[in-house]
Amino acid sequence: MSRHAVIVGAGVTGLSTAYHLARKSYGEITVIEKGRVGDGASSRAAGIITGLLWSETGVRARKISLTRFRELSDELDGYEFQDVGCLNLFDAASWPERERLLPLYDRLGVEYEIMDREEMAAAWPDLVLAGEPVGLFDPLGGYSEPDHYLPALAEGCRALGVRIREGCMITDFITDSGRMAGVVAAGERIEADAVVSTVHVWTLKVLESIGLQLPLKSFVHQRYVTAPLPSPVRIPAVNANPYGGYLRPAYGQRLLAGIENPSAPEFHVPDRSFEMSAIAPPPGLDAAARDDLLPLVPKAAGADLADRTARTTRTGWEIEKAGLLSFSRDGEPVLGPVNRFPGLYVGVAFHSGGFAYNPAAGVLLAGCVADGRPEIDIEDFSPNRFDPDETDAYNRTMITHGEYSMPGHSRRH
Ligand SMILES: Cc1cc2nc3c(=O)[nH]c(=O)nc-3n(C[C@H](O)[C@H](O)[C@H](O)COP(=O)(O)OP(=O)(O)OC[C@H]3O[C@@H](n4cnc5c(N)ncnc54)[C@H](O)[C@@H]3O)c2cc1C
User: How do the domains of the chain map onto residue ranges?
Assistant: First the structure.
């Protein structure tokens, strides 16, 4: 008899899991989405990826993502990975902590180049950096346009026989002798051999009905896009940590900028039916993105954004998008089988890098579900690594984004 996997959530994590399961000829695969494909954080992402993370498992997983993003460019119609590299910037205070990770990159065979300001100015004349930042360039990094990637991945799933049910909310799980046996969606019981929960910031609300909790915090995050600029901006994706955000070129000769907001309070999703479109960017951050980040690309700062007709914000951005990021207590993703309920798997808490993780998340979850083992050791991402009492206490504390610390590292995407 054919096996059936139900994947809850049609963001990039759920779709990628479905796609990679289908490539393994798993059997019947159904993705269940309460809204439309991409309704959550995925359509709001900046889509930047670097392979230069801070943990061995993270680096190994990102190697899978970087390989798969390139392959997916060939496999999916209408999607192309933007192979511009990713420049990770550090100041004198944050560099030593990152420098300590270079032996890890060397051991895992991850390419990088350390650059000073002059070298960066020579490589990218459009990028003008104040101060003396250190550049850690990832030649394999880059970005994807979520608006192109999401429909292409959904179509790729359908072409492999995956059923995507939109407008259908999971309200409960079915268990049988302690095993996960399916879901209840829109009043209908759907039986399954495996259930994969990829519901991002809805995780606590969705898993509530089976008494499963994970130590997670969510914060609002925002990014902006200019109207088309008079000439193309030739820069890599830039994680501009010392300047408070990030930048990348965007489709149609635009520039995208995302800005940090350390004072953002923790956000509690009120109930299962919450929609991410309810999140608005806090006032003033559009101006901060313009004033703090656009000067790094004088070509964009110099363009008279305010005179352009197609614009949304008063500060001249054409597009603004806000959504939620989700972090685990130790800063690592939570991905893999749940011991308490054999047959249940989760993929959540990808910090600000869930778009970058998605090809790997899909490959790894598909490996867990179809073969009983993922492609690499993901013990450090295990959902079973948290103590329930500590989880409870952690989830009761309220902190700001600035107070949240991922043990020891300044990190992004
Ligand atoms: C402004 C912004 C910029 C970002 N930039 C980057 C970046 O540059 N690089 C990067 O790697 N990451 C970035 N991220 C993070 C990235 O967007 C997320 O980590 C990623 O999209 C998470 O994908 P997901 O599929 O896990 O979750 P989502 O896309 O949120 O998908 C979860 C889905 O589950 C559905 N769902 C929830 N509950 C139910 C239910 N009960 N029944 C059925 N369906 C349900 C939701 O409707 C939703 O569609 C950014 C995020 C934001 C907000």
Answer: 3-396
Element (H, E) at 214: none
Please tell me the distance from the alpha carbon of residue 150 to that of residue 344, in angstroms, as a whole number. 25
Q: How far apart are alpha carbons 129 and 295 in whole angstroms?
A: 9
Please state the rounded mean pLDDT for residues 386-403: 94
Q: Residue 212: what are its φ and ψ, rounded to 5°?
A: -105, 125
**Amino acid 307: pLDDT:** 47
Q: How far apart are CA 353 and CA 356, in angstroms?
A: 5
List residues near ligand 1 (CB under 6 A): 8-14, 32-35, 39-42, 44-49, 169-170, 198-200, 202, 206, 221-223, 258, 272, 321, 323-325, 350, 352-356, 413
Report CA(333)–ligand 1 centroid distance (Å).
Answer: 13
Nearest atom in ligand 1 to 237's CA: 8
pLDDT tier at 305, thresholds 50, 70, 90: low
CA 139 from centre of chain: 20
Please say whether the beta carbons of 402 and 327 come within 8 A. Answer: no
CATH of domain 3-396: 3.50.50.60
**Residue 316 confidence class, pLDDT cut points 50, 70, 90:** confident
Q: Give pLDDT, residue 309.
A: 47
Distance of CA 154 to the CA centre of its chain: 17
> What is the DSSP-derived secondary structure letter of residue 413?
-
Contact between residue 266 and residue 400 where contact means Cβ atoms under 8 Å apart? yes
Please, which residues bridge with residue 18 across strands? none
